[in-house]
Amino acid sequence: MPGLSVQEIRGLHKDLAKAMADDAPKDIQALLSRLKEGVKPTEDLIRTTKIGQIVGKLRASPHAEIATKAKSLVQGWKAVIDKERASKGGSGGAGGGSSTAASSSNGGSKAGSVATTPKAGAAASSTPVGQSPSGSASPATPASGSATTTAASASSASKQATPAASAPPPASAPPDFTLLGEKTRNACLKLIFDALKLADVSPPIPESTIFAISLDIESSVFDKHCSGEVGGGVNQEYRNKMRSLSLNLKDKNNPSFRRRVVKGEIEGGKLVELTPAQMASEERLAENEALQQQNMLVAQSAAEQTAETDAFQCGRCKQRKCRYYQKQTRSADEPMTTFVTCTNCNNRWKFC
After folding, report:
1. I need a surface site. Which of 49, 211, 212, 328 has the fewest CB within 10 A?
2. Do the beta carbons of residue 96 and residue 161 sit within 8 Å?
């Protein structure tokens, strides 16, 4: 059967996280079975979807069946990926092995030609090399010297034929900002990547990891706002959200937010739900709260000042517990208007 796509695996990732949060063992087992049947593991696929991380957490599950399935799944994926790495890095080793085999074969034929002489043949059949028939040490014969030289040359040829074993690992490929197949999405992916690269983290995070995080964020935003779009296009909500995320992640006054995203403390699915106020730095939150308190004080001071009195009687409940204030509502030579509110029944009236 064909393997699951990246989007399908991301969907299973979210379903698995929800099932873990809800502590639903049956759902977890069903999702693990689907992953086992549908995932054709490659190193890029596992790294991009982060499916290995969440399945790895289930190895410590208190449910024995879930822990066993998770261990088996992770071990199977690891074996396939290790085999993939070995096949990519083993082409040079294979050539070295054939060269080594050829050198050894040449050396063996030379030694064989030397051993065809009667004296060498007799020595080889009756005594070890370097010993006389009586057991005492004897000087090396030309045949033994030739064999030693041939073996040394074969060993040297074997070392020279396998340079890949000591060569440094190749550098990782640069991020591909065209893989999404849509101009706007690719541009937004690069915006997020450039913003996350500004994170000051020790030890530094590899570009491949930052690219995977950026891809996860972009995919989460696209799934939330554009899942119903015809033809897989983007809409204005997607553009606004990506612009907001980019500006907040690049904000030089908010390095802690950028650092938390790069370290994986805030995943793409959670990041999509955050409002601009929730993404603000602690300093900005404190400033906003202080400004809100100041606005409340200003609003309260602008309200009409009232006083309590028993000088007025409510026409509805006949009580004399009232609040009142006065205001100039007509021309300056006219008396002020008195506004009265009954504190018992909330009846209101005015008079001049």
Report:
1. 328
2. yes
Which candidate, 44, 43, 38, 29, places its Cα nearest to that of 9? 38
Tracing tokens 């092995």 back to the chain, one arrives at 97
pLDDT at 187: 92
DSSP 8-state code for residue 291: H
Beta bridge partners of 348: 341
Q: Do residues 271 and 217 lie in contact, with contact meaning Cβ atoms separated by under 8 Å?
A: yes
Q: What is the pTM of this model?
A: 0.37
Six token digits for residue 71: 């261990």
Instruction: Give the number of other Cβ atoms within 10 Å of residue 153's Cβ.
Output: 14
- Alpha-carbon span 271 to 251, nearest angstrom: 16
Residue 343, both tokens: 């504190």
Q: Is-contact 10 219, C-beta < 8 A?
A: yes
Query: What's at 242, amino acid-wise?
Result: M
- Helices of type H across the chain: 6-22, 25-38, 43-49, 51-57, 64-89, 91-115, 118-126, 142-161, 183-196, 207-225, 236-250, 255-262, 268-273, 276-279, 282-302
pLDDT digits (tens, 9 = 90+) for 160-213: 444 444 444 445 567 888 888 888 999 999 999 999 988 888 888 888 889 989
Going 221 to 16 to 22 to 210, the CA torsion angle's sign is: negative
Q: What token pair was written down for 159?
A: 């070392």
The CA distance from 320 to 69, in Å, is 78
Six-digit token string for 56? 């790895």
d(CA 109, CA 344): 119
Q: What are 288's two structure tokens?
A: 């906003």
Residue indicated by tokens 């938390």? 260
